[in-house]
Amino acid sequence: MAKKQKPPTIVAELGRPETKAETAARKATDSFNYRQRKTVNNLVFSLIVTLGVVLVIFLAVPQGKGHFEDQALDVKTLAAEASPTAGRTLVAPEVPKAWKAKQARLLQSDDVNYWKITYTTVDEATGQEAYASVVQAFTSDGSPVDDAWVSEQFERQEPTGSEQLAGIDWVVFDHPELSPDNSNVVFALQGTWKGDAILVSGTDTPATLRLLAIDAIKSLESGSADATTEPTKEAS
Question: What residues form the membrane-spanning segments (predicted)?
């Protein structure tokens, strides 16, 4: 006896059985949607795995927090090493032990060569930090450093006076109205030593920066004297 054939299923949306073409189209759509969902799931899983690997690497590698804050360069040694290249004694002032030298480099800008030292200064009484810079600038042909270049180093601030320190005449740039958050030249001094422009600036107190200027000149005079002193020969 032949089996009774099952009547075709009526699709609710159509109100009738699907045609073969409609069935094929539905199955194709279902298959496509399944593959799309699987692809998205795989992408999400891959992203999670990648982020996990990145996190592990990040946690495994030392981050060096505080390294720059704790860094303090040996300015005297660096100045001595750079002096032959500069062809002159380079400034290396004595500063308080709490200060940290962050930069001591021989640089060039336009026709000006310059030795630049930057410090994070520290008030030993309060622990408050500030910024200070010493620049010794000179030209290859010995001509004076251009005033426009100096103005750029001082953020184009206007001079406010003059004074004498350590036997040097200085142009003063005193701008207490400026915020240390917006300017590194709240106070500055511009002097000349043996044809080189000496620039001292920063956000520390004028008294502190004046002492830095004095120590800068002392270091130049001391270094120059050492360079010109010939060793004495012992009597035979």
Answer: 43-61
Tokens for 7, please give them: 């009547």
Give the whole-angstrom CA distance, residue 41 versus residue 32: 14
pLDDT over 80 (residue 14):
no
CA proximity to 192, closest of 164, 168, 161: 168
Domain carrying residue 33: 16-60
Regarding whether 181 and 105 lie in a shared domain, the answer is yes
For residue 74, being part of any structural domain is answered with yes
pLDDT digits (tens, 9 = 90+) for 47-93: 787 777 676 666 665 555 455 466 789 999 999 999 999 999 999 99
